[in-house]
Amino acid sequence: MPELPEVETVRRTLEPAIGATIVAVWDSGKGLHMARKPPRKKLRALAGATITRIHRHGKYLLIETDTAQTLLVHLGMTGRTLLVAKNHPVAKHTHMVIDFGERELRFIDPRRFGQIDIVERGKESEHEGLAVLGPDGLFEPATGAYLFGKSRKKNATLKAFVLDQSVIAGVGNIYASEALWRAKLRPTTRAKKLTLAKATILAAAIHEVFDRALTKGGTSLRDFVNAYGVEGSNVDYLWVYGRTGEPCPRDQTKIRRSVLQGRATFYCPTCQTP
Ligand SMILES: [Zn+2]
Predict the structure, then answer these.
(1) 78 with 104, same domain?
(2) Could you list which residues have their CB under 5 Å from ion ligand 1?
């Protein structure tokens, strides 16, 4: 599933669409996340609008226009957002096409867990998907004091704590394992055990794993590609995620895999102290 660095990579590679005027919008009429169909009437009403800004909060893309409407896109599990020439072959599972004349922005999603919606500008944060989000992990980076405050009295594990989108929007399963390894924290430790010093190290580790992934164009485990259809290379630079049995880059101990709340978690039993 795309996490903050992947969605940010998509956002950056979509930026050439800023200034483009929408000729028409097509949608497949198929249900996406929660079987909801994209709002066809509102999408079609975007014809004539010009893209003014492409923003992001957590894993949501917010495509603003010079009308009062903002197009909201969530990639879900397998969503791709491509900016292609009009004559580029249309992929199977294409669910939305924004026609700019010579180019098109296409949304492709085989598993259909993605979301397409229209929200009124200025009211984006009231959308049900965004209303529950905490500060964005990149644009409003968490401080140690913030994480320390949020973790007080929390019985949740550190893994669940960093995955909690109301704490930091954008951290997913890959970067949770990576950040906890970087901070030398055991994923099963209770969040309430964080000290201010450790919370500060964790905040810095989250920034570092995001920055690192962004410079590599994101992590492409299965489906992820940027708006030009290019995969990211960060999978080659992951420290622990997916590396069961391989040596810890810090002390050569074999990396372990465990399952926490149904999600694979990777850690070093030596340097990530409980
Ligand atoms: Zn280690």
Answers:
(1) yes
(2) 248, 250-251, 253, 268, 270-271
Where is the domain boundary, 109, 131, 153?
Answer: 131
CA distance 153 to 137: 22
Structural domain that includes position 198: 144-267
Q: What's the 98 CA to ligand 1 centre distance in angstroms?
A: 47
Cα-to-centroid distance, 2 and ligand 1 (Å): 26
Task: Please tell me whether residues 115 and 206 are part of one structural domain.
Answer: no
Residue 139 lies in a domain: no
Q: CATH no. for residue 227?
A: 1.10.8.50
In contact, 9 and 215? CB cutoff 8 Å: no
For residue range 109-138, what is the model confidence (pLDDT) as tens digits? 999 999 999 999 999 999 999 999 999 999
Q: Pick the catalytic residue from 11, 59, 186, 243.
A: 59
Residues making up the chain, counted from first to last: 274
pLDDT tens-digit series, residues 66-83: 999 999 999 999 999 999
Residue 249 falls in the annotated catalytic set: no
Catalytic annotation present for 59: yes
Short-list 152, 117, 131, 93, CA closest to 41: 117
Task: Verify that 262 and 153 share a domain, yes or no.
Answer: yes
Instruction: Please state, in angstroms and rounded to a whole number, the distance separating the CA atoms of residues 111 and 23.
Output: 28
Distance in Å, CA 155 to ligand 1 centroid: 25
> Which CATH number covers residue 127?
3.20.190.10
Using the structure block, give the residue that is written with the tokens 């984006």. 124
- Supply the mean pLDDT for the chain: 97
Task: Specify whether 201 is located in the same domain as 102.
Answer: no
pTM value is 0.97
